[in-house]
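Researcher: Good morning. I'm working through a list of sequences from a screen, and I'd like to move beyond sequence-only analysis. For each chain I'm collecting a predicted structure so we can compare shapes side by side. This is the next one on the list. No need for commentary yet; just the structure.
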Amino acid sequence: MPGRPATDQQMRMYMKLRCHHPQHAAAAKAGFSERTGRRIEGDPRLPSQKSAERPLRRKVADPLGSLWESDILPLLVTRPGMRPVMLLDEMQRRHPERDWDRLRRTLERRVRAWCAEHGAAREVIFRQDHPPGQQGLSDFTDMAELGIRIAGEPLAHRLYHFVLAYSAWEHAEVVLGGESYTALACGLQNALWSLGGAPAEHRSDSLSAAFRNLERDAVEDQTRRYEALCAHYGMQPTRNNRGVAHENGAIESQHGHLKRAAAQALLLRGSTDFDSLELYRDWIADLIGRRNARREKLVALERAELGRLPPRRTSDHDEVSVRVTSSSGFILRKVFYTVPSRLIGYRLNLRIYDDRLECFVGQSLVLRLPRRRAPSDGRRIQVVDYRHIIHSLRCKPMALLHLVYRDALFPRPAYRAAWERLLDACDARVACRTMVELLALAHERGCEADLAAALSQQLLEDGMPDLAILRARFAPSIACLPVVAVNLPSIASYDVLLPAMAATAGAATP
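Model: Good morning. Structure tokens for this chain:
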């Protein structure tokens, strides 16, 4: 057709028709003019072969003009990696008379084309084939973006995440602290025992987060413990290069999938608030279970290739020894914990887990405590259980007034509000005695939650807690003994048994 160049297909058709038709007929059947036919017979090369020789002619003036050669190209050559946006800012500074906002897309296309021809070599990603049972990966992922709350309080936490590279079977559990060896060892063992086998290789990042604040000897000790953990399960420990996250792509991508699934499940649930930490842990476990159910066929193939588990688990905690002071407590990593006063002077062997401390005297477990962590600003905190020291505090109630851990002593906000009201309205001696008796009442009657509700009601109605009324309300109920009627048979009724006993005795005589 006029104005449109002939194509390779049209030229081949023309040359085939020309063998049996005159020039004008062959050109008409091929769809172009007789003049084009004469030109093709003079130069039998295909149009695609000719276009490579034609010089590109710009139909409109170059919008960048001479600035491409004089200003932009030297910057690209001398400063590799400079982005078009930065080049645009520099051109606006050098040549403010030009309307550079309209030239942004043009500049981006020109820079992209230049980089494709003259740019530096880029890193190549080598896709890997993962045989069944070969590799399992561990990592931690922060969950702050989901906004999880426990009983109304924000929960700062991570998830330990384990994934099998072949089947994408996964295990996740809540970690309250940082990326520690303890959290890794506990989570990894829980994953392997849930799976029922161990892969040949365990890959993690460089554990830099777990070892960052440790001394050199501690780092070497943790490294030895990690290698021993993998050896216990017959796994080869491997690590990716530091800062190269895509080498753990099989689990990094699963982080994103898991977070999106959790966000959608929370949206369907209608709330990010859980009544307790245990309920949140159960919710995460249920979410992971439903995700794994969709992979059951691949998991079955991979389970057949996994190594057998050892007869028992290995150590998944840190150990430290502390002495209980006369304050009925000990300090561990800038956190003060109270213990029952009977342990004063004893040396406790602590097993440190991510969420708890187990206290041993010798080989006997005597106490479990919730684990807390000091804030990053260096302040010390206290984990206080009023039940541990209330008997001594009743003997010295004025000690409450300036007690170092007084604010941590109150188990619920209602008790703290009652203390503040007493201190404002009463003499300090009366306030201390009343508050100590309230704590003693909560301990002796086992009514901490109910007493807190009653205190809140009294503060709302009367403005002051009334100890006498509360003692009467939570006093133990006196149970009435039941009347048991016992009907005794008469002695004469036993005489009817004598003939039978005599007959039995005679039969037994030879």
